[in-house]
Automatic annotation (TrEMBL):
Protein name: Gamma-glutamylcyclotransferase
E.C. number: 4.3.2.7
GO biological process: one example: response to unfolded protein
Catalytic activity: glutathione = L-cysteinylglycine + 5-oxo-L-proline
PANTHER family referenced in this protein's UniProt entry, alphabetically: CATION TRANSPORT PROTEIN CHAC-RELATED (PTHR12192), GLUTATHIONE-SPECIFIC GAMMA-GLUTAMYLCYCLOTRANSFERASE 1 (PTHR12192:SF26)
Record function comment: Catalyzes the cleavage of glutathione into 5-oxo-L-proline and a Cys-Gly dipeptide. Acts specifically on glutathione, but not on other gamma-glutamyl peptides. Glutathione depletion is an important factor for apoptosis initiation and execution. Acts as a pro-apoptotic component of the unfolded protein response pathway by mediating the pro-apoptotic effects of the ATF4-ATF3-DDIT3/CHOP cascade.
Organism per entry: Smithornis capensis
Amino acid sequence: MWIFGYGSLVWRPGFEFTSRKVGFIRGYSRRFWQGDTFHRGSEKMHPITTLLFHFQASTWGVAYEVRGEQIAASLQYLNVREAVLGGYDTKLVKFYPQEKDAEEPILALVYIATPQNPSYLGPASEEDIAAQIIVSSGCAGHNIEYLLRLADFMRYFCPQAEDKHLFSIEEALVSILPCLYYTEESLEET
C-alpha cells in the first residue's frame, strides 16, 4: 500500500515505511485553507495545507510504501493525525514518481480536507495567510517551521515543479518578518 503526503508528511511521516518516492498527483492543488487547533495551533485556527480538486493542477510530495504490519499501524496513526484531529477525508489517487524510469502510476491513499470540513477556512490572500502563520503554533511546532520546511522540500526535491501559492505565502511571510532571512547553510544545520 502507498500513502501520499504533501504537507508535514514529506519530512515527518510519523510511521514506519518500507520505501519512499518523491513525485506528484494530478488534479489537485495544494492550498493553505485548512484550520487546525491541535498540531500547529491553539484556540485560534490557522492555515495548514490541504488539497483541492483542480483539473489542470499537480501537487508534489512523497509517497510511502507500507507493507505487512506497517499498513495497520500507519493507517491507525494517520486516521488519528489526519482524520480525527485534522478532519480530512481519504481518497485514492494516482501517484506519478519523479524517477524517469518509472513505468505506471502507483495507486496511493491521500488525506484531503473538503470545504464541508468544519475546520475549512477557505480562500484568503497570501498576506493574510502569512500573518496567521506567524502567530500560530501548537504541539507539533510553530507554523512558520511548517511553511519553511515545505518550501525547502519543494526547492530541493522538486526544483522543476511550480507551487505559486506556497512560495507566495513564503515571500509574504519573509516580507512581514525581514529578520527571518535564512540561508542554505543555516537550513543544513537543522
